[in-house]
Amino acid sequence: MYRNGVLEKEGFPVEEVSEYVRDPDNTVWFDLCHPTQDDLGVLREELGLHELAVEDVVSGHQRPKVDSYDGHLFITVYGIHVDDGRLAPVEVDVFVTANALVTIREDERFDIGQVTRRWDATDGTLGANGVSFLLHGLLDYVVDGHLDYVEDIDGRIENLEEQLFDEDRPIDGRALQRAIYELRRDLTRFRKIAMPMREVLGTLLRRNQGLVAGTAMAPYYEDVYDHVIRVDEWLESTRDQLANLRETRLAQQGMRLNEIMKRLTGWAAIIAVPTLITGFYGMNVPYPGYGSGWGFWLSAVLIAGISVGLYAAFKKRDWL
Amino acid sequence: MYRNGVLEKEGFPVEEVSEYVRDPDNTVWFDLCHPTQDDLGVLREELGLHELAVEDVVSGHQRPKVDSYDGHLFITVYGIHVDDGRLAPVEVDVFVTANALVTIREDERFDIGQVTRRWDATDGTLGANGVSFLLHGLLDYVVDGHLDYVEDIDGRIENLEEQLFDEDRPIDGRALQRAIYELRRDLTRFRKIAMPMREVLGTLLRRNQGLVAGTAMAPYYEDVYDHVIRVDEWLESTRDQLANLRETRLAQQGMRLNEIMKRLTGWAAIIAVPTLITGFYGMNVPYPGYGSGWGFWLSAVLIAGISVGLYAAFKKRDWL
Amino acid sequence: MYRNGVLEKEGFPVEEVSEYVRDPDNTVWFDLCHPTQDDLGVLREELGLHELAVEDVVSGHQRPKVDSYDGHLFITVYGIHVDDGRLAPVEVDVFVTANALVTIREDERFDIGQVTRRWDATDGTLGANGVSFLLHGLLDYVVDGHLDYVEDIDGRIENLEEQLFDEDRPIDGRALQRAIYELRRDLTRFRKIAMPMREVLGTLLRRNQGLVAGTAMAPYYEDVYDHVIRVDEWLESTRDQLANLRETRLAQQGMRLNEIMKRLTGWAAIIAVPTLITGFYGMNVPYPGYGSGWGFWLSAVLIAGISVGLYAAFKKRDWL
Amino acid sequence: MYRNGVLEKEGFPVEEVSEYVRDPDNTVWFDLCHPTQDDLGVLREELGLHELAVEDVVSGHQRPKVDSYDGHLFITVYGIHVDDGRLAPVEVDVFVTANALVTIREDERFDIGQVTRRWDATDGTLGANGVSFLLHGLLDYVVDGHLDYVEDIDGRIENLEEQLFDEDRPIDGRALQRAIYELRRDLTRFRKIAMPMREVLGTLLRRNQGLVAGTAMAPYYEDVYDHVIRVDEWLESTRDQLANLRETRLAQQGMRLNEIMKRLTGWAAIIAVPTLITGFYGMNVPYPGYGSGWGFWLSAVLIAGISVGLYAAFKKRDWL
Amino acid sequence: MYRNGVLEKEGFPVEEVSEYVRDPDNTVWFDLCHPTQDDLGVLREELGLHELAVEDVVSGHQRPKVDSYDGHLFITVYGIHVDDGRLAPVEVDVFVTANALVTIREDERFDIGQVTRRWDATDGTLGANGVSFLLHGLLDYVVDGHLDYVEDIDGRIENLEEQLFDEDRPIDGRALQRAIYELRRDLTRFRKIAMPMREVLGTLLRRNQGLVAGTAMAPYYEDVYDHVIRVDEWLESTRDQLANLRETRLAQQGMRLNEIMKRLTGWAAIIAVPTLITGFYGMNVPYPGYGSGWGFWLSAVLIAGISVGLYAAFKKRDWL
Hints:
5 copies of one chain form a homopentamer. Chain A is 62% helix and 13% strand. Chain A is α+β, with helices and mostly antiparallel strands. In chain A, a hairpin with a 2-residue loop joins strand 1 (2-3) and strand 2. In chain A, helix 7 (173-206) packs antiparallel against helix 8. The first copy, chain A, is rod-shaped, with a radius of gyration of 35 Å. Chains A, B, C, D, E: Keywords: Cell membrane, Membrane, Transmembrane, Transmembrane helix, Transport.
């Protein structure tokens, strides 16, 4: 609980919330992690939340959004969590009333400590803005997480890019293929939680006059909005970059196949022609040189000469 | 028939509808399944429906939409039905007047019982909103069906994804190809019935003031609208995911071809070179070692040595 | 000529048009098929048409559109005609004045009889709406034609789809390729005439107040507009479906190539190894078993054994 | 110079322009081809043109646009010129004041004679609209050039299409590939000069009230606008058509490769099996029939029988 | 420092800025290159800048944007720098107050000298517009850099195009592939800094009335805006052109593979058939001509005749 912008109390039970909230000078922050149905029921009564918003918390898997109810906002955002190389977003639901902020985390993978540290690090003047200040800290943390994630993806793509053109090491096609596939899958998933953030911030900035617009917090929300747009643009360029990688890989495969075929053809010729000659000299008919020494020398010269000649000709044309 | 939000009567014939409707305190719900031309004629007269709307019911295969006529709305939506693995949407046409809701189902595959159960499960206060409440229950059920469907598709895609990278089991290319084709076809079809839902809900929320906007039902319709957007966004990410799968499969095929060619080339060389040597020793000319023991040993050593040498060289370069 | 909504006269010459038109109770419909420059000149004077609109008729190949001039509208739409399997749209230009409708068909392939039959089939009350009623009949017929066409395309795609996965009959690749090409070409052409219809109907519904908006015909035009949107949406899903077909076909080709290569490799090995053995036993050096019976049996056993062994091994790995 | 809509004087020097322009009844048209910096300097002073507009003329390579300055408009459009099969657009800059039109051509490849002939061909009444009339003539000519160009492209695509499916003549793959490449490159370039025309005409029609909107010229500009939209739509369908061609060609290549591989496999088998048999009968071991007549007949029968048998089997499966 | 549009003083320390700024007749320009945290702190106090804007400078990697704070604007743009063939954009942050312009360069790679030369080259009248004039010079330089860059890219693409169709020199597939990859990567990066410029200029032109809109500088900003649009359109056509190149290259690869396979097949046949004949004549059975002279001549004729015949047949069908 913050009072007049100053932290006053911590760790009180849900049931007391309504008491503190009654005093407009107080700003109450309440955090629930994986709450039970009952917790939510108590909360609902204490703060007068709308039934639908509470239902959304229970059912989970909402899209990032701002829902505006009488007397409170309901916001859903997703924090980034990477689980064994796979993107596993963590849902955070937020209730915003005049002087209370309730954060409901899906589970502990969303580190709320980072948010409180951010709150504490800001100097006092902004703290006077109450829930608007608290909400900003939360959103700022979430969006910075998105920014870090897209930067991380960008780095992984550059990594693959280097592998692609590294001439010293052969490419492990299977692993590369899989890495590209997984990057793209994660990007698709990330898009689902990052794109609607634009609307979330836009709604907060433009529609809800009391909370953000026209207050000293507005530039700070603008700043978060700016980061959201940066995430979006970066995401788009990342997708483009990945498509570039993917198509280049495909073209490389095609080129590689051509080269293999060229070599196959070349070596096949170098082996097949001498084989034909040995076949000729293996016939049971009295060809010139049959059974005589000069026949052997002629055949040997033919085999060696044609082999070397073909090899040189193909080498010159860059077929081998 | 509901009266002042309370269920009062069930199972009366079409002809009596106009009687009940006359009393504004009554809310009449009427359900027809695969009605005849005559049924619709009676209904049209009883409720004063517009000729064009009734024609739309008869001709069928409308797109999801809201048509606004004098004194009533005409809504078309599609329920999900999966028939032998293929998506087979079921059309449901709805007439909404001031105090009557008529649902006309294409056939029994749309389970109206689910909708009534949903109505009954809601507590009484909302029921006072009459047709608006009933319509909400129907739309909620339909959109939840869409949500389930897109979730199901998502699951099937993840399933295919696992097959794609399962290194223990060889991929049944033909079946995978077919599964991808059918998923995409179903997605295309589903899009056709799901995308216009956004407009349907949007129209109900914004334009028809008496029915939804400004009433206690508004947040509930907003909630359905939210689900519709979630379906849309999920659908988009699903399409993206499927494209990812498809292109990865294509790249795998290309990689596989390259590998097959590499191996083919390798083994061909390992067999062709000894064959050339046997050809040489099969010539009917007095080559060194012709007909003598050491000739055999030389040839045997050459054959074995070159075969093993090539094998080792190729194995080292990962060509076999 | 219709008078007060009742058909009165038929088959009078162009020159008399202005007489009939003078009486506001008359509704005149005039149909020209492939008119000469002179016919149009007379018409222009009789009805006071704008020079540019008449020029558009002469030059032909307009895009579907509504041009609004002082005292009259100029509308261009395209009827569907399929000529030897190719889409060959037929241009129909329409002049709409206060009480006259002039239809100018490019040639006889557009069956105006279908339109008059539609007019006659509607009951009398709507006929009182004069040109608005007549124009509706025409547009309704045209858009229904588009709807039929896109349905037909849909059917052809499903047909190809069945061929694609029919395992009993081999695919005639060349014919399938051509069919896909032609379907796509026709869809591109159809798009060119169907997409602008949305704007045509939209313009009629919203901008020209006297003619459609606010009259009893409005719902009927809405209905046509609805069909236009359905054509558009169906068109899009058709394009998607075709892309699905095309890409699946490509993937099948790639898979087929892989299979052919696998088998080629397998059989090549089964033949090449015994050939090597015969080569060995064909050498003119005293290998073990040279010229003796057990040498033959050993060679025969080797040849048969290795062939059968390879065949079994490849069969097990599904390489043959 | 036109006076009251009548051509009065021709071929006077730049320096006199301001004299004629002073009289509002005069309409002055001035044409410069590849002007020097000095010519433009004089012109600038005579007509009071804005420095930036003149700079744009000098620097060249502007995009098609309308710039609106105090007292004059500056318009840039591109005429079509095809140079050795490559699209080489010619820039034409236009200054429009109250009663003067200055056209500045990049070079002689833009035939201004065609524009004057168009002006002269129009009857006198429109000529009274002064610069608006002159400008229309110019834009009409330019846009008709675009229309002709896209029609020409369409024709070339249909030409390629015929080549693609002509079964009598083998396709010259290299030439086809190049033709497709060049068509697409030209389309991309053409797009760059044709797409912004929509904005140019739109700006003239809507924003600059004195010049076009509300005058008798408005329908004529609408007509040009209509052609611009037709160019755009045609361009889009052309791109689509070209993509169709390109992808079909790719699919044909894939199919062709499959066929080549099938035949290669088939013939390889037909040759390899008899070769194995001859190898068997070439062994220096007493196989049954060694050195005896019936051995020859058996081998001959085996060779011929297996060859014919394989050929028949493959032919039946359409592998050869 | 400029006073009344005239350059007066240069090279004074940050701390004095506020003094000069106090006099509204002065226009102060201040340039910082890679400033320390302290420099920015001083600057912030001197000019009363917003904390968030200064933070953006410190954190860097902003997207191009205009942020509007009380009393000053904060603008971020990117100059082009090519580092070892890779695009490496240089960030330039700009603070704009009523009579001061502060440019903060990421490092020396952005040549501010070019901007001052541009300022000095403009004649005095425009200089009277103070910061608006200075800002214009900077933006003009930046956008001209973008224009040069996209022109350079265009040139590189045309270069690759020539390589693609140069029949005299074989294509170095690997280098071409890499060049295409890198071009596309640079385009993606360039897009990220060039696309938002449209919004930057648009914001300056439309929203901030005091600075640009309604002043004599407006046409000059319009001119820069025009260049920005040209960059965008050129960028799009460049991407299209690159896609064309890429896909053509892919099709060429496919064609090349087909050709290699055709030749492989052809030569394989020419060698395999004679090999079969030598095998036949190598059998140890009394075939006709066994051990006799005419047998040799027959075999020789068969080998030579079939080889030449196959060669001629394949050559005629363009298979070799």
